Amino acid sequence: MTNKPSENNFPDESSNYPSRISKESTNSLPSKELNGIEHIHQVMKRYAQGWESIEGLILGGFNDRLEKIPETQRKEPPLEIAVPLVQALTYTAQNETLREMYLSLLASSMDKGKDRVVHPSFVNIIKQMNSLDARVFDKLCASNDYQPALNPQVAIKRIGKNFIGSMPEWFIGWRFSDATVFDISASLVRLSKFGLIDLLFDRTAGNDTSGVEHLKAHQELSNILDNYKAKHPDLELEIFTTLSLVYVNEYGHHFRDACK
pLDDT averaged over the chain? Predict the structure, then answer.
């Protein structure tokens, strides 16, 4: 059985953005006769409340990115990307991980060579992410292949009953020092909801199960099982697993290329 990633049904936020800007205000946009850097600076100042308080955090990183794009390849950023993006920066500029993603996306939207991968929905995805989601996604992108995963549970032997919520819903064998395996599992589910990855339940890739066997014997799962055994000494407990896969899909790769 395969869990297909849900479609990105983002709320219509057009009421906040220039699709509803009056003709008068559209005519008052900064002149495109300005060079790309000066023009986008004026767009930022126009639409980002409290811009002065974050300007120092933003401009250096943005200018560095834009200067790497040959002038002949630069273009004006689409307003449906630039305006919500600079508005979002006003309340995420202090978050370095998300700030860098926004700045990369803004620069990518001004690069003709990245027209194929840039999409307005990426702004909304970053809005919904936290730093952990960004780090998990970045680590997943390090591999271009299907990655083995487990859906483990603490089970009572020979009875067919499990302790609900006893194990992370999705286990891929790694975590960060500041995140538990349950945090990583929840992040994987969120990334799937964003449409960036596919969580393929009860699926395997080929006949090589060495990676899966390593996951089954992982110390993180063994520790959880030992804790349940200590709490329920009258029960014979074991780890029951379903073999599954995690995969960064094409939409996810476009997001990575636009936001890195």
Answer: 83
202: left (phi over 0), alpha (psi -120 to 50) or beta: left
pLDDT of residue 60: 79
List the one residue out of 22, 19, 61 whose CA is nearest residue 40: 61
Hey, which residues does 153 pair with through a beta bridge?
240
Q: What is the 3-state secondary structure (H, E, C) of 70-81?
A: CHHHECCCCHHH
> Domains of the chain (ranges plus CATH)?
14-128 (no CATH), 138-252 (3.30.110)
Smallest CA-to-CA distance from 3 within 238, 170, 219 is with 170
Taking CA atoms, 256 is separated from 60, 105, 142, 180, 246, in Å, by 22, 9, 11, 24, 16
Q: What share of the chain is helix, strand, coil (3-state, %, to 5)?
A: 50, 15, 35
Which amino acid is located at 95 in the chain? N
The arrangement of strands across the sheet holding 161-163 comes to: 161-163, 147-156, 237-248, 197-200
pLDDT tens-digit series, residues 132-151: 999 999 999 998 789 999 99
Query: Residue 144: helix, strand or coil by DSSP?
Result: coil
Residue 212 pLDDT exceeds 90: no
